[in-house]
Amino acid sequence: MTETKQRIKAVFDNYERFVETLKKLAAENSLDIEIFSPMPVPEAERLFPQKPSRVRWFTFFGGILGVIIGFAFPVYTALQWPIITGGKPVVTIQVFVIIAFELLILFGAIFTLLGLLISARLPRQNLRNYDVRFSDNSFGVIILTDESHAAELQHLMQEADELIVDQVEVEKSIDR
Amino acid sequence: MNQDNFILKNSRLIVLAFILLGSLFTVIGALSANPTRMWQIYLVNFLLWTGIAQSGAVFSAALELTNATWGARMRQVAESMVFFLPFSLILLLLMIFGADYIFPWLSKVNISETKKIYLNLPFLFGRNFIGLTALTILSFAFVNRRRMADQKKNERPRSLAVVLLLAYVVVYTIISYDFIMSLSPHWYSTIMGMHFFTACFYTGIAMILFTAVFGRWRLFPENFMQDNDFHDLGKLVFGFAIFWMSLLWSQFLIIWYGNLPEETEFLQLRLFEEPWRTISWLVIVFGFITPLVILLNKRGKLNQWVAGSVASLILIGSFFHLFVLIVPSLMPHHFTFGLMEVFVTLGFLGLFVLAQDIRLRKIPIR
Lengths: 176, 366
Hints:
The structure holds two protein chains of two kinds. Chain A contains five helices and four strands. By secondary structure, chain A is α+β, with helices and mostly antiparallel strands. Chain A has a four-stranded antiparallel beta sheet. The longest helix of chain A has 27 residues, at 93-119. Chain A starts with a strand and ends in a 5-residue tail after the last strand. By secondary structure, chain B is mainly alpha-helical. Chain B has one domain (12-353). Chain B contains 16 helices and no strands. Chain B has helices at residues 8-31, 35-65, 74-79, 84-94, 99-102, 113-118, 121-150, 158-179, 192-214, 216-219, 227-258, 261-272, 276-294, 298-302, 304-330, 339-362. In chain B, 40% of the residues are buried. The chains are: A alpha+beta, B mainly alpha. At the A-B interface, helix 4 of A face helix 11 of B.
């Protein structure tokens, strides 16, 4: 089941006008909006607060996995070849703390990267709404809207350097 | 100038009373039957407050060197602590009167002739006085030039920042060897210097956070520090808690592994014998576990009361950290904590606040 929607793509070359437009758009409610920028835009994060990313859970469980492996692996190998060195116990937890700490960081970092790739669905082939200029020197706003609102939103974004409007078929009732 | 912003507006009398009572107890303690009790807590406080004041300038220099712009507001708070440094030079010289009680190698413990080349009274106070004077001059020069650079009167003092940071590392290593390590003349540890100046820097950052939360009504304009400042400070404190603990752990691990009698006696006393054992654990809980657990969460960093409370626990932890490094060396079997300790500490605190107030009168935070 699909429905027809208007896709408005606005490209900005100027940071101030981009932020001004974002402020105007933030006043609208329930907006299906995507923002593209070649650099961090603190205003965008403040105006359109997002749910905390899922990546943090990857980091968390990666770190815990690292700690478990960091203790379990040295203990296992030490017990497989139990030689008493310098009068110390075979399983020396004090020393394994360092290995566990290092693996906590290593696994945390690797899982963060994996989590980022999975959450962002990278690498991907079809970047539907993407424009190469958004990684270069332009800012972009893409809005999916009903036809009834389209004119009003276009008016809000009239300061854009380029405004592209087209019809798209989207699947109905799927939250993005 | 807006007089309302200063610390001492209403509490001038309290601060002066602290200083007066502190000096009174210092004199009484120095003349009492057991002067060691006073001088050891004097030394603990001297190292604590000097370290905090110095790390104010060091923090600013580190920001300068890393081109960090996020700390523009908190570095003003850090720099306001620097004014204590001239006071600490006088406090250092006062310690000459207590040298006989502080340094066991002067009369109580025999040390070898080769060690006496380094450990003797004129050389010890000479090098520390010169070192701290140099650091004081560098810190003042850096802070002033940085402020001028903000007003576009001169270039950013980047090379001065490098000199200050290197001098900090060298002088604080010497201080830790002289005032902490030499108190147990037969014990030695190479990492002591790094451990000490890291601890000082950590305490300094905790002090900035503490001041930012509890000093804001009097120190600077309303809403001067913003949410992202507290977020950044919380992250710094969290990171340094881990770094400080990792140095402590490296220290412990090497001694534990080597298991040499002259090294283990130091830890044996502090980690396994009461009451030092309890204090050591208190230091670890206050200085490491609390910030680790609470500041891990973003809400913990952003809630100013939570972050400020953690900072005050870290300050208490830092005090007892120095306490447990110094006091067991001098009085291994007597633990005393009474009015003397409290009032000498309050005296130092009063002097620190007074110094900060003098600085803020000259250069208000805005």
